[in-house]
């Protein structure tokens, strides 16, 4: 008696990665408009670059899935979530430190006989070290933003008119006027003071003739 043995379903072949971009449409948005929006935002070209440069390490990567992941990442950054950016900078700092270490070892191995090669390796190592330091500084600023103290500046826009009518006269502004305000007040009240020297006392002239009586009838 034979038994019926079900056939095993062969495993499905892996889906072939597509380099055709399939954009997610918004309501009432055409495919061309969606593609133009992604292109202008700079995401499409960055996704293409990431796919092309990752072939040697990650193999084929679907372009649509790559750009969808990139769009989601950008949306999280816009909402204030910088976790992915901080992780990226941390990983790059470690990578740059590894490059610095490898270049330093190569420079050391060429130090005895090939000084030119050692010099080039050291220069490249120091460049990697500088980039690593800059990356760590950027990560530090992202984690602890600096405090900015702003001073208020009173800047008037448009023309200004300065009225000095009520301001007191400055010293020397009335140099041509010999009479000061207190002196004018004294003159108004009849109390003008003579600041000159007192004159000498003179005696009256006693030799003057006495005026005779006048006869109005005779002298007409």
Provide a concise account of the structure shown.
Helix content is 50%, strand content 0%. It is an all-alpha fold.
How is this structure best described in words?
- The chain is mostly helical and 220 residues long.
- Among the domains are: 18-80, no CATH class; 82-145.
- The chain has 8 helices and no strands.
- The chain has helices at 31-41, 43-53, 55-58, 63-78, 83-109, 115-143, 181-188, 216-219.
- Helix 2 (43-53) crosses helix 4 and helix 5 packs antiparallel against helix 6 (115-143).
- The longest helix has 29 residues, at 115-143.
- It is flat.
Question: How do the helices and strands line up, and which of them pair or pack?
Answer:
Layout: H1 31-41, H2 43-53, H3 55-58, H4 63-78, H5 83-109, H6 115-143, H7 181-188, H8 216-219
């Amino acid at each position: 008696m034979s038994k019926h043995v079900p056939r095993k379903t062969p495993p499905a072949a892996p889906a072939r990665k597509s380099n055709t971009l399939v954009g997610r449409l918004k309501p009432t948005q055409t495919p061309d408009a969606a593609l133009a929006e992604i292109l202008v935002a700079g995401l499409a070209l960055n996704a293409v670059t990431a796919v092309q440069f990752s072939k040697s390490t990650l193999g084929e990567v679907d372009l649509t899935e790559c750009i969808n992941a990139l769009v989601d990442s950008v949306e999280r950054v816009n909402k204030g979530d910088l976790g992915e950016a901080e992780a990226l900078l941390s990983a790059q700092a470690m990578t740059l430190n590894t490059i610095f270490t490898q270049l330093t070892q190569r420079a050391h191995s060429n130090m005895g006989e090939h000084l030119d090669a050692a010099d080039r390796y050291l220069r490249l190592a120091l460049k990697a070290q500088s980039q690593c330091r800059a990356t760590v500084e950027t990560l530090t600023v992202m984690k602890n933003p600096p405090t900015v103290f702003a001073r208020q500046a009173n800047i008037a826009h448009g023309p200004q008119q300065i009225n000095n009518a009520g301001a007191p006269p400055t010293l020397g502004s009335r140099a041509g006027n010999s009479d000061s305000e207190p002196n004018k007040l004294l003159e108004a009240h009849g109390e003008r003071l003579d600041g000159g020297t007192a004159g000498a006392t003179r005696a009256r002239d006693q030799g003057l003739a006495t005026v005779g009586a006048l006869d109005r009838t005779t002298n007409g």
